[in-house]
Amino acid sequence: MSLGSDSAKAERMFRLMDGFLKNDSISLQQDILRHVEYTVARSRFNFDDFEAYQALAHSVRDRLIERSHDTQLYFKRKDPKRVYFLSFEYLMGRSLSNSVINLGIRDQYADALSQLGFEFEVLAEQEGDAALGNGGLARLSACQMDSMATLDYPAWGYGLRYEYGLFRQVILDGFQHEQPDFWLNFGNPWETERVHVTYPVKFYGVVEEENLNGEKCNVWIPGEVVEAVAYDNPIPGYGTRNTITLRLWAGKPSDQHDMEAYNTGDYINAVVCRQKAENISSVLYPDDRSFQGKELRLKQQYFFVSASIQDIIRRFKEAHSNFDEFPEKVALQLNDTHPSLAIAEVMRVLVDKEHLGWNKAWDIACKIFSFTIHAVIAEGLEKIPVDLLGSLLPRHLQIIYEINFTFVEELKKRIGLDYNRLSRMSIIEEGAVKSIRMANLAIVCSHTVNGVSKVHSELLKAKLFKDFYELWPQKFQCKTNGVTQRRWIVVSNPSLCALISKWLGTEAWIRDVDLLTGLRAYAADPDLQQEWMMVKKVNKMRLAEYIEAMSGVKVSLDAMFDVQTKRIHEYKRQLLNILGIIHRYDCIKNMEKSQRSKVVPRVCIIGGKAAPGYEIAKKIIKLCHAVAEKINNDTDVGDLLKLVFIPDYNVSVAELVIPGADLSQHISTAGHEASGTGSMKFLMNGCLLLATEDGSTVEIVEEIGADNLFLFGAKIHEVPKLREEGSPKMPLQCARVIRMVRDGYFGFKDYFESLCDTVDGGKDFYLLGSDFESYLEAQAAADKAFADPNKWTQMSILSAAGSGRFSSDRTIRDYAEKTWGIEPCRFPSDG
Ligand code: B1N
């Protein structure tokens, strides 16, 4: 059915559709039972918690689908400019609690379930995580989707539907092992497979020149065709009926290709080929930094890009016949370089299929793309070997060469024959392996390029992309990352949420997070402080129970919970943390017994995954376990110090850990963390930060003041000089703890040797030695502050009160206004 132009009829339809499904307790119970009986196919008299969760999820999904239909129809009718967010990774985590909270029916569901004899919280625990991403970048995409929906922007997310998400981390004897995350095993109630939304995606083959009405034109004859099928995931906004879509593509065999194989009589091979098609989207690469120029990764990138572009152009053509209007209706956001083949693909479609002519096509492309960079150092930038691209996507290689040719010719006119600079800026890197610099391609075509924090954006202009900045200063912007307070306070810390709303006298901060600054006025109020401490205590209790269940270690709630949870990387310096813990242990051991009562007890919590091929990171995990084994079994030290490693850190574990943390560490070597978003989640939950002046921390300091966190370490501009100086900077205390590891105090002497070498082997690239003393001072300051609960609580309240700037709502509004040029398009209803 189409809406046609009869707007009265359309209005009436919108009204009729409003509230198809009722949200009173009885209706919800009926819906859940109906799904038990007909969707899960269990008897409504006999079903377990998991089946109850499935039925519950399906009933929520029905409500999401209703809203998503309304939203899409409304967008179609209004035809606003839309943004398409292209990201290779999304860390959505669980969806149940988030959905019912955003739909505003959490309490109704809790009531309905209790009438049926179930507890909402217990069923919510049945859900597994959707972990289609590695770390910060992927969780950022998820937070931004929540904000785009909540702020009513006409937005779509596009990505890949990996069958295996990020590996599960299993720790055996202190070593990390990777296990596949076959997350779709029990079905995924949130997604809808769109069997009719499929597109062919071509690979390999040759390009031939053909004559079309007297004009030369390029025709790509592929060697392989795979079909992309859409899976839609609804993303509900909070306090609005708007529900947008995250469309993920999966590979399926193309009939076109099969026919050829069947015709040659090779039936068995044809069937095996069908399986091969599904492989494209089967597994997420578990590495968030190094790129290896692997063919499958490139195939995944193109597959995702090609399907998305076909879908976007189809939607545009439904309402428009003239591509001149394309930039008025479409904005494409490249989340890092991973989707940047989209540029060549848009050019291919506009030139080869729509026959617009090169110049016109290029003009359009340059108006629609914008590009976010998440990398900090040149080694982090993707380069694709020319040979690989040429064999997989022969036409795209031609197009990229042509883009580069035109760009370099223009550049020569602007800067003359400065060959060094020309070769630095070229999209093609000449060298042992000739390759395509994907970031250069993205910068050349995008109208806007942004970093993800102030310092990162400045670094891009001053270092990594200096040449481009000098050429096009107006392209460069800063969009400091943010996280969604819906997920990171409302869903994960309900007691804090209630407390904040009570003291602010409103829930409006959930949509307008700047209101949190209102808490500043009460930061010294003993009543608020008392209640604030109680909330923290309850969250620490939850976390302590989890720790005991995971590791068998009993921890004291009076201790300071000191957390560092994030991907394991040398630059993030989990090793500095562990060396600091060894130092603390050593101090306690060597202390007079009478002095020990002055020690502030600590529970040190570390968690995170190492990329499977990252040896040093894996050794850091093992060292953490070896040190924990020693400390936790030392009855002499008892509750004064504990160390626990939380295995398989993911979004749902983070939801438990973050609210229970007193202190959290963000201690990357200055200049290495583009932004960091974990710190923002801890901040919102009233956790104090111990941090270096890197990435977003610099802006956090601006917001909450240097008095309310513990800063230490070299500053960005000092790093190069310190690196030159090398080991002479190694303080005695640091040398001593390294010696303990080297001497086998924690066992595995030989195994830890290469890890110790990274610090005292003469290079100390990440400056653990030179930052060590200042790190210990910051830790001592944290101890001192913790010993004064009122002071600590005041700092904690001020941290949360100053976290508003780090909401993804602010980030997204900024993108919408300054980069995408889009406006809210809100479905007319009360939410
Ligand atoms: O992106 C986050 C930042 O907060 C972090 O500082 C930054 O390290 C992170 C290749 C990446 N940069 N690059 C990646 C992820 C996956 C992959 O395959 C690179 N992730 C970041 C959000 O801006």
UniProtKB/TrEMBL annotation:
Top-rank taxon, per record: Eukaryota
Catalyzed reactions: [(1->4)-alpha-D-glucosyl](n) + phosphate = [(1->4)-alpha-D-glucosyl](n-1) + alpha-D-glucose 1-phosphate
Keyword Glycosyltransferase attached: yes
EC number of the protein: 2.4.1.1
Keyword list, A-Z: Carbohydrate metabolism, Glycosyltransferase, Pyridoxal phosphate, Transferase
TM region positions: none
UniProt keyword Hydrolase present: no
Cofactor: pyridoxal 5'-phosphate
Purpose of the protein: Allosteric enzyme that catalyzes the rate-limiting step in glycogen catabolism, the phosphorolytic cleavage of glycogen to produce glucose-1-phosphate, and plays a central role in maintaining cellular and organismal glucose homeostasis.
Protein family per UniProt: Belongs to the glycogen phosphorylase family.
Protein name: Alpha-1,4 glucan phosphorylase
Classification of source organism: Eukaryota, Viridiplantae, Streptophyta, Embryophyta, Tracheophyta
